[in-house]
């Protein structure tokens, strides 16, 4: 999080962020080091986040706030607590529904989709999804 | 199965201090936290703390997290970051003889017989089920310290579930940990210290704060924080509340209005504000799930933020092997959480290892400091809540294997 002067690795992305203004450029106390860009997709659209951040932070930096539609009412939901307590930010990540994206670190190439309703368990394309690793 | 003397759940200020105190006294400690980084909510606190030097005054919260983590790293404590507690078994391990038997004063009856758990034969007083990103595993413990902290409250208003209505802590995490702006223009609801400090931090991050609304007729937090905002031209509207959120899929505005003495909206005072984010700083609720599950006596104390486990001055619940510390024992601040952690850690270590003059010193000192802090102008509420606990003391303490309910020094 804090001060370390390192060289910007992606001038293009940095300018884009600055233009969009969703990343803090100047701060009196904190200085955010330029971290490696991480490419991921949201609803099939390519997006770029930064290494070391959560999926929720990367989406917020890309201007995405609507994460899912509630199971009963279908109302739009985003994150609320951002620390893994409220379960308002559940999304489908690499086919795995109910992933708490405010806690899930951003990985290269990860596919993030909005969740509608409760999602379906058991159709996880990855072999290492939680239900498999806890109950093999 | 692995086992430890003291399992501590939660690596925030309370958990870290408990781990440091217990580990220094020679107990085998395991500290569990679901975040990859220890420090709890300290990691996003960019403001400097008040109080005395001993309580890290003048140091920013995020630096205190680093200091405490380094202190703990120098000790032989086991750290389990990125690990969630997903189970708690055998919390009442000992067969109670007729004489010692204490009726559980909980209103809730547990759906399963804890005392017939298969762990009865082991030397542990209970077992935690843990899961990290790779695997599930179990950890036996003699003493458990629950330092899980608190969760942010929401309040009722129309469309309070739209994306863009964020907790104050979420806003802090987003901007101070990840450097991402939560929005361009924010309405802050609540003028307690969190509301005031986060408003100031929003401005530091280059985000506009449209107003701070407060339902009470006076500002809730310290004057020094409110004055900083006032100097920057942020209106702090007392006797005001948020009525509804505008927007269909996301927050596009907010309607605020005046409230009377009865906290009901005053007619014809509603007005809309052009904001894209509504930040709620309307209090916290202790995260007591583990304590509920452990079967200890729970008490509803509004001054402490909701249901808390009954505890004595040693932060011990009526189950003599279960402790708690920090916001889960009543909503206060990081300074008191650290002191409570020290008390819980030192007392649990004494239970496991036996009498120790150093533990006695830590206990006496930390308890005195807690009293001193709670005598301050903003400590009233917590002091009052803790006094309420004393009024509803349980009939007795439930003993545990290998521990003496009242250690002698």
Task: Tell me what you see in this structure.
The complex is a heterodimer of chains A (136) and B (409). By secondary structure, chain A is of the alpha/beta class. Chain A has a single domain (11-118), classed as Ubiquitin-like (UB roll) (Roll), CATH 3.10.20.440. Chain A has 3 helices and 8 strands. The longest helix of chain A is centred in the N-terminal third of the chain and has 10 residues, at 11-20. The model of chain A is unreliable at 1-9 and 132-136 (pLDDT under 50). In chain B, strands 1, 2, 3, 4, 5, 6 and 19 form a 7-stranded mixed beta sheet that branches. Chain B has 2 domains: 2-151 and 284-391, FAD/NAD(P)-binding domain (3-Layer(bba) Sandwich), CATH 3.50.50.60; 155-280, 3-Layer(bba) Sandwich (FAD/NAD(P)-binding domain). The longest helix of chain B has 20 residues, at 334-353. Chain B contains 9 helices and 19 strands. The two termini of chain B are 32 Å apart. Classes of the chains: A alpha/beta (136), B alpha/beta (409). The interface between A and B is large, with 41 and 42 residues.
Brief summary of the model shown:
The complex is a heterodimer of chains A (136) and B (409). Chain A is of the alpha/beta class and 136 residues long.
Write the layout of secondary structure elements.
The complex is a heterodimer of chains A (136) and B (409).
Chain A: H1 11-20, E1 37-42, E2 45-50, H2 55-61, E3 68-69, E4 76-77, E5 90-93, E6 96-100, E7 111-113, E8 115-116, H3 130-134
Parallel strand pairs in A: 1-7, 3-8
Antiparallel strand pairs in A: 1-2, 3-4, 5-6, 5-7
Chain B: E1 2-9, H1 13-24, E2 29-32, H2 61-73, E3 78-80, E4 84-89, E5 126-131, E6 136-146, E7 150-152, E8 165-167, H3 168-177, E9 185-189, H4 193-204, E10 208-214, H5 223-231, E11 236-238, E12 240-246, E13 253-258, E14 271-273, E15 277-280, E16 284-286, H6 289-294, E17 298-301, E18 306-309, E19 322-324, H7 334-353, H8 357-374, H9 380-391
Parallel strand pairs in B: 1-2, 1-6, 2-3, 6-19, 8-15, 9-10, 9-15, 10-11
Antiparallel strand pairs in B: 4-5, 5-6, 7-16, 12-13, 13-14, 17-18
């Amino acid at each position: 999080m804090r001060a370390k002067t390192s060289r910007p690795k992606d001038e293009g992305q940095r300018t884009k962020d600055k233009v969009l203004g969703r990343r803090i450029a100047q701060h009196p106390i904190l200085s955010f080091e330029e971290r490696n860009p991480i490419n991921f997709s949201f609803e099939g659209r390519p997006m770029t986040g930064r290494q070391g951040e959560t999926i929720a932070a990367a989406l917020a930096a890309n201007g995405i706030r609507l994460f899912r539609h509630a199971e009963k009412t279908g109302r739009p939901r985003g994150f609320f607590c951002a620390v893994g307590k409220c379960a308002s930010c559940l999304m489908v990540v690499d086919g795995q529904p109910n992933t708490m994206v405010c806690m899930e670190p951003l990985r290269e190439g990860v596919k993030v989709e909005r969740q509608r309703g409760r999602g379906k368990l058991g159709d996880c394309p990855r072999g290492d999804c939680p239900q498999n690793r806890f109950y093999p | 199965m692995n086992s430890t003397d003291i399992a501590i759940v939660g690596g925030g200020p309370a958990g870290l201090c408990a781990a440091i105190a217990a580990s220094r006294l020679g107990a085998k400690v395991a500290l569990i936290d679901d975040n990859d980084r220890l420090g709890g909510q300290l990691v996003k606190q960019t403001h400097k703390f008040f109080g005395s030097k001993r309580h890290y005054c003048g140091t920013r919260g995020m630096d205190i997290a680093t200091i405490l983590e380094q202190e703990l790293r120098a000790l032989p404590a086991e750290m389990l970051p990125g690990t969630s507690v997903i189970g708690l078994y055998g919390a009442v391990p000992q067969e109670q003889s007729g004489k010692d038997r204490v009726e559980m004063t909980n209103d809730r009856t547990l759906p399963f017989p804890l005392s017939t758990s298969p762990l009865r034969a082991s030397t542990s007083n209970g077992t935690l089920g843990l899961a990290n990103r790779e695997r599930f595993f179990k950890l036996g413990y003699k003493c458990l310290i629950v330092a899980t902290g608190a969760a942010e409250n929401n309040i009722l208003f129309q469309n309070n579930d739209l994306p863009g209505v964020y907790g104050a802590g979420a806003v802090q995490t987003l901007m101070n940990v990840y450097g991402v702006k939560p929005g361009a223009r924010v309405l802050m609801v609540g003028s307690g210290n969190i509301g005031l400090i986060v408003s100031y931090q929003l401005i530091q991050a280059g985000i506009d704060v449209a107003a701070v609304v407060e339902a009470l007729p006076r500002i809730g937090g310290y004057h020094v924080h409110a004055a900083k905002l006032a100097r920057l031209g942020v209106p702090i509207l007392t006797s005001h509340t948020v009525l509804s959120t505008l927007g269909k899929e996301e927050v596009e505005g907010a309607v605020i209005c005046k409230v009377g003495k009865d906290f009901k909206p005053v007619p014809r005072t509603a007005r809309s504000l052009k904001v894209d984010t509504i930040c709620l700083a309307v209090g916290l609720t202790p995260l007591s799930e583990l304590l509920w599950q452990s079967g200890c006596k729970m008490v509803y104390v509004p001054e402490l933020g909701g249901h808390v486990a009954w505890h004595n001055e040693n932060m011990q619940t009526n189950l003599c092997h279960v402790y708690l510390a920090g916001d889960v024992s009543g909503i206060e601040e990081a300074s008191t959480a650290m002191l409570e952690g020290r008390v819980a850690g030192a007392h649990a270590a004494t239970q496991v290892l036996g009498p120790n003059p150093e533990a006695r010193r830590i206990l006496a000192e930390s308890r005195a400091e807690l009293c001193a802090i709670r005598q301050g102008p903003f400590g009233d509420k917590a002091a009052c809540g803790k006094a309420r606990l004393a009024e509803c003391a349980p009939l007795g303490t439930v003993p545990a294997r290998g521990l003496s309910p009242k250690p002698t020094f």
